[in-house]
Design brief:
Number of helices: 7
Shape: elongated
Strand content: 25-35%
Distance between the termini: 11 Å
C-alpha cells in the first residue's frame, strides 16, 4: 500500500465529524486563540463547485470542432482544511470526471464523453495529474473530438486543477488566511463543535448539560454517574502487528498525528499530540494486547482512564481492533460535559481513521 509523504497531512475521512478539542491548549477558558487547536473543515462540496467553475465550463474551437465542458459529472473522495497554531494544512484525494461535448462544424454532428482525473491528491500537488479522455462512442467523429480534447483541453484543465490546489492550500472554503469558522456559509461547511456552545450568548441555546443528555442515549453510562466506559471496534485490512506498530512506535505516531510524541513499544510513560494525551503503558503484547493508563491534559488533575486494546484476526489481513476505555470522567477540569464525545470521536477520527489513511490500512 502507498504511504503518504512524511511532510504531508494525513488523509482523514468526514472531517466535520471530528472535534478540534482533541488538541487542547493549556488555557483556563479553553478558547481557541489564534487557531492554536486543531480546526477541521470539510472542503468536499467546495471542491466540487471550484472544479465546476475552473474547468467545468471551458469552451473553445479548434480544427473545425467546437468543444465545451459540460460540468462535473462525478466526484468522489475527500478534501479538508485543517488549522493548527495558525497554520493551514490541507489534504485531498479526489477522483474527478468532467463531461464534454464536441460539435463538428462541418456537418453539425455532436459527440460526448468525459475527461477523467483518477487521482488528484495533495501528495502530488504541483505535479501534472494523470488524465484520460473517454469518448462515449467509437466513430471517427468521436476519435477526432477526443484527440482535440487531449491536445487542447487537457492543458487548460491542468491549469484549473493547479489553481484549485493553490486555493485549497490557502484555506479553501475558509479563504486565504481566514479562520474557517468565519466562512459559515461556504459551500459544504458545517458548524464546528465549539460554535454550538462557545460562540452563543447565554440563553441562545441549550446548556451543555442539556445538549449532552440528549446526545448521550447511546452511551454506556448516564451522566448522573461519575465515570463512563467507551467501547469501540474498528476494522483494518492489515495484520494486527501493523496496527500495533502504528500505535506504539513513536515515529509512526508522529507521522499520523503530525505532532510531537514519545511512545515506545514497551511498558513505561508515553505522550501523544504534543503532550495533550499522556499516561503509562502497563502491558504490551505485540499483535495481541495494549493496556494503558490514559488521560487528556485538560482532565481534572490526577484522573486517569484505563485503555485496553485487543486484536482479532479471523483471517490473514483482516484485523479487528477492540478498544475498551473505562473510568472516563464525566467532565473535564473546566466542567465541560463533553468528555465522552470528545474522547470517543477522537479515537475514531484522530487516531484510527488517520492510521487507515496514512498507512493504507483501509478498505
Amino acid at each position: 500500500p502507498h504511504l503518504a509523504h512524511p511532510h504531508q497531512a494525513p488523509k482523514m475521512a468526514k472531517i466535520g465529524e471530528g472535534d478540534e478539542r482533541w488538541i487542547v491548549a493549556d488555557r483556563e477558558d479553553g478558547t481557541n486563540v489564534n487557531s492554536w487547536h486543531w480546526q477541521e473543515k470539510d472542503a468536499f462540496e467546495w471542491s466540487r463547485e471550484r472544479f465546476a467553475d475552473l474547468i467545468g465550463a471551458i469552451e473553445f474551437e479548434d480544427g473545425g470542432v467546437r468543444c465545451r465542458c459540460t460540468g462535473v459529472t462525478a466526484l468522489t473522495g475527500e478534501a479538508y482544511v485543517n488549522r493548527r497554531k495558525g497554520k493551514i494544512i490541507c489534504g485531498y484525494e479526489l477522483d474527478l470526471k468532467i463531461g464534454y461535448e464536441g460539435t463538428i462544424l462541418d456537418g453539425g454532428k455532436t459527440v460526448t464523453g468525459n475527461v477523467h482525473f483518477p487521482y488528484i491528491a495533495d501528495e502530488n500537488a504541483g505535479e501534472e495529474h494523470e488524465a484520460k479522455v473517454l469518448a462515449a462512442g467509437e466513430g471517427p467523429d468521436d476519435r477526432k473530438v477526443k484527440e482535440i480534447m487531449r491536445l487542447v483541453a487537457l492543458p487548460k484543465m491542468a491549469e484549473g486543477v493547479a489553481k484549485f490546489e493553490k486555493e485549497l492550500a490557502k484555506g479553501g472554503p475558509g479563504g486565504e488566511g481566514a479562520d474557517p469558522n468565519e466562512a459559515k456559509n461556504a459551500p459544504g461547511s458545517k458548524p464546528s463543535a465549539r460554535e454550538d456552545f462557545r460562540d452563543k450568548k447565554p440563553g441562545d441555546v441549550q446548556s451543555n448539560a442539556e445538549k449532552e443528555r440528549e446526545s448521550r442515549t447511546d452511551k454506556t453510562a448516564p451522566l448522573s454517574q461519575k465515570s463512563h466506559t467507551i467501547r469501540i471496534t474498528e476494522r483494518f485490512y492489515c495484520r494486527p502487528r501493523d496496527v500495533c506498530d502504528a500505535l506504539m512506535d513513536g515515529q509512526r505516531v508522529m507521522h499520523f498525528s503530525r505532532s510531537p510524541a514519545q511512545v515506545r513499544p514497551e511498558p513505561g510513560p508515553f505522550m501523544m499530540f504534543d503532550g495533550n494525551i499522556h499516561g503509562e503503558t502497563l502491558e504490551y503484547v505485540p499483535g495481541e494486547k495494549i493496556v494503558q493508563n490514559w488521560r487528556f491534559r485538560n482532565w481534572k488533575e490526577g484522573h486517569f482512564s484505563k485503555v485496553t486494546i485487543t486484536f482479532r484476526e479471523p483471517e490473514p489481513g483482516n484485523c479487528f481492533v477492540d478498544l475498551v476505555q473505562t473510568n472516563v470522567p464525566e467532565t473535564d477540569a473546566f466542567d465541560n460535559e463533553t468528555v465522552m464525545d470528545t474522547t470517543e470521536v477522537g479515537w475514531k477520527q484522530q487516531i484510527f481513521e488517520r492510521i487507515r489513511q496514512v498507512f493504507g490500512y483501509g478498505a
